[in-house]
Design brief:
heterodimer; A: Butyryl-Coa Dehydrogenase, subunit A, domain 1; Butyryl-CoA Dehydrogenase, subunit A, domain 2; Butyryl-CoA Dehydrogenase, subunit A, domain 3; 3 domains; 11 helices; B: alpha+beta; 4-stranded mixed beta sheet; 14 helices
Chain lengths: ~375, ~400
């Protein structure tokens, strides 16, 4: 058993902290959010140069060959810094390409890793809150290709991607793991309507409406991607736990600082026992979240896909509840100040609320964890 | 004990229901149902409709322009109001300063202010909290110095809801530095258009502008705008608290919110199943409905005690704590039912139905409910001290 970080991992953490301190201060982030600009190519390029965009991919496809633990540490740092760049889109789209195509994915990944293109994977749909394979979007074979029709929700990074990876059903019914294809769809395709927005925590996302979008035969990247999708969403789920952990840490320390300095009734409010206990509750949730997130990150490296899926669901179930609690308590302890856009606490709370839901909330993952004990992976 | 309504009360309810069905503007109904914030024009427009009917100041006696309803009638009206998709009136006039003026105001003050409140002609705001006086309200510093027939006000108030809408403010100011801190406080009414008043908007984490900071730079207020005696402001403010009790629990709006959630759960599906059939959703809806029932009957008991002339006590702290926790829990369930569909931020550009599209606004704004009006921690101190004899 070894929970210590390697030298490389410590350097990774330091480089993120320095980046946030220098180039990603809260003030700069606020100015950025006040504009319509969804994408900052200079920042994205910087993230590529640090090697962060190539971190989760193996060296055989041109990546850094980082582990899921490394990806979690990166996310933790980015969460702590309230970074809004769509790094999760890189993980989702890049990892599913690597998993499906192996070395053949390297040409596609090149631009992603060097930061010249932002990828996006659109899989979530209105028919299910969280099940990745509830794919109702259809892919009908036509002369020389396919037509795609359906709806996608909350596609991370989609507004800034030139090309979208879209899951669509070739066979079977929504919910079936089998029969789902992965299609490369140019963002400018006829029949594709993109409803672009910022998500609750500032990252660009989009809902997609596909109405008989015609794509050529070679746009079908793989024909049976359900298993790969589940695995990649599980990986991303663990990474989101890392992001939430970083956000919770920052939220906790800032709140602890605040109750030591804010005075009412002539004393710091942190001298009141009821508030001390709230801080202790927050502290315990942060530490428990750290433990279960590291557990899941290490489990994912194992050979057993069901064990990895259970670990991801266990971590997310725990972290979802913890993130909600820590965010809500932080606002409460900050009083009116916690309610304002001017202070970072509210922005951490929004990020924690977003992450608590993303890739499955507590109810979903508790249910999934329970179901995975005896039956096959879904 | 008897919880049935009389025939007359049921006839009253039907009359109210019909009138609301005929008079709530469709746009207001829609926005209120989806918890979309109203504009000043919309809020005031609706309050004037109510004012003309004589129902805006629904808990005021007839002599001051209210309908003179019994506690039961007020309850029936409030539930009908919520189910008709009509917003609560802005509380600062009808629920807060109005009753204070009735109890402590001079004849001139009553004649000058009450009719305009009851008619929905003037908006009020509340100047209590200051940057360094939140939970410790009695340490407030905004000063009022007597100069001839005026007080001269200097200082700042914060978290002032709707200050940017308000024609007038009622506020607590320090008129004496010498007295014990509560004794140096007075209750003043001021015109928001007075020279020296400036307003800074504060955008909250729901992305909207409800709150403000208000600055006073040598603002002159005539001495006749003092309510009660100089130095009696703390007593007047405490008196005001008991009038919040009629709406503090928020029973009617929470009832409507649960109803909306149940309908939504029947309309929406998750993984091929009607959401309302999912065990998690069913359980959580049922639990919240049970909490609401307990709150509703606690509220009835308090109303009944007040109607029998018992002096209002710290029980209202219980209603505030449980009521605000329930409001928060309901908004959270709606957000979680919406899931991916509630995560796009402040946009109409989504595939989500409106109930989910607008779920984040109340979720974030209602975090303030356990902070404002005396934080829930302070309310628990009140119960511990006044009811349990602790501390």
């Amino acid at each position: 058993m070894d929970f210590s970080l390697s030298e490389e991992q410590r350097l990774l953490q330091e480089s993120i902290d320095r980046f946030i301190e220098k180039d990603y201060t809260f003030t700069k982030r606020q100015q950025r959010l006040a504009t319509e600009m969804l994408y900052d190519s200079a920042i994205w390029q910087q993230m590529a140069e640090f090697g962060w965009l190539g971190l989760p991919f193996s060296e055989t496809v041109g990546g850094i060959g980082g582990s899921l633990v490394d990806a979690v540490l990166l996310a933790q740092g980015l969460g702590k810094g309230l970074v809004i760049e769509p790094y999760l889109a890189v993980l989702l789209a890049g990892r599913i390409m690597e998993r499906l195509l192996g070395e053949a994915a390297s040409a596609w990944l090149e631009g992603v890793i060097e930061g010249s293109k932002v990828p996006a994977l659109a899989y979530a749909e209105p028919g299910s809150r969280f099940a990745p394979c509830w794919t109702a979007t259809s892919a009908r074979p036509v002369q020389g290709g396919y037509t795609l029709s359906g709806q996608k929700l909350l596609a991370l990074g989609a507004p800034v991607a030139e090309e979208l990876l879209v899951t669509a059903r070739l066979q079977g019914e929504p919910g079936d793991v089998q029969g789902i294809g992965l299609f490369a769809v140019p963002a400018q395709s006829r029949g594709l309507q993109m409803l672009a927005y910022r998500m609750m925590h500032g990252t660009p996302g989009a809902d997609l409406l596909l109405e008989d979008v015609v794509v050529p035969k070679e746009a079908c990247l793989a024909e049976d991607v359900g298993r790969a999708l589940l695995t990649v969403v599980d990986e991303a789920t663990v990474v989101v736990c890392g992001d939430a952990l970083g956000s919770m840490e920052a939220t906790f320390w800032k709140t602890l600082d605040y109750v030591k300095t804010r005075k009412q009734f002539g004393v710091p409010i942190g001298s009141f026992q009821v508030l001390q206990h709230t801080l202790v509750d927050m502290f315990m949730e942060v530490e428990q979240s750290r433990s279960i997130t590291y557990m899941a990150a290490m489990q994912a490296a194992g050979e057993d896909p069901i064990a990895a899926a259970r670990a991801a669901s266990a971590a997310k179930a725990y972290v979802s509840r913890a993130a909600t609690l820590v965010g809500q308590k932080a606002v409460q302890l900050h009083g009116g100040m916690g309610m304002t856009e001017e202070l970072d606490i509210g922005h951490y709370f929004r990020r924690l609320t977003m992450l608590s839901s993303l890739f499955g909330d507590r109810d979903y993952h508790v249910r999934r964890f329970g179901g995975l004990q005896t039956t096959a992976m879904d | 004990m008897d919880i049935d309504f009389t025939k007359e009360e049921l006839a009253f309810r039907d009359e109210v229901r019909q009138w609301l069905a005929d008079n709530v503007p469709p746009e207001i109904r829609k926005k209120t149902s989806y918890t979309i914030p109203l504009t000043k024009e919309e809020q005031q427009g609706w309050e004037r409709i109510l004012g003309r009917k004589g129902w805006l100041a629904s808990h005021w006696p007839k002599e001051y322009g209210g309908p003179g309803w019994s506690a039961t009638q007020r309850y029936l009206y409030d539930v009908e109001r919520a189910f008709a998709g009509a917003p609560l009136p802005s509380p600062f006039g009808v629920s807060m300063v109005g009753p204070v003026i009735m109890a402590y105001g001079t004849t001139e003050q009553k004649q000058r202010y009450l009719p305009k409140i009851a008619a929905g002609e003037e908006f009020w705001c509340q100047g209590y909290s200051e940057p360094d006086a939140g939970s410790d309200l009695a340490s407030l510093k905004t000063s009022a110095q007597r100069e001839g027939d005026d007080y001269v006000i200097n200082g700042s108030k914060i978290w002032t809801t709707q200050a940017h809408w308000a024609d007038r403010m009622f506020c607590l100011v320090r008129t004496s530095q010498e007295a014990k801190k509560q004794r140096g406080i007075s209750f003043l009414l001021l015109d928001m258009k007075s020279p020296g008043v400036t307003i800074r908007p504060i955008v909250t984490i729901d992305g909207h502008h409800h709150l403000n900071q208000v600055f006073f730079d040598n603002v002159r207020v005539p001495v006749e705008n003092l309510v009660g005696e100089e130095g009696d402001g703390w007593t007047v403010a405490k008196h005001l608290l008991q009038f919040e009790r009629t709406t503090i629990a928020g029973v009617a709006d929470s009832k409507k919110a649960i109803n909306n959630l149940k309908e939504l759960a029947q309309e929406e599906r998750d993984g091929g199943v009607i959401m309302g059939d999912l065990p998690d959703v069913r359980r959580r809806l049922a639990e919240l409905e049970i909490d609401l029932l307990a709150l509703e009957y606690s509220n009835f008991r308090t109303l009944d005690a007040v109607a029998r002339g018992e002096s209002p006590g710290p029980e209202s702290s219980l209603l505030k704590i449980k009521g605000t926790e329930l409001q928060q829990a309901l908004s959270q369930l709606r957000l979680e039912m919406g899931a991916n569909r509630s995560m796009p931020w402040l946009t109409d550009q989504t595939l989500a139905p409106p109930a989910f599209r607008h779920a984040a606004t109340p979720y974030f704004f209602l975090r303030a409910a356990t902070i404002y009006g005396g934080s829930n921690e302070i309310q628990k101190n009140v119960i511990a001290k006044m009811l349990l004899g602790l501390g």
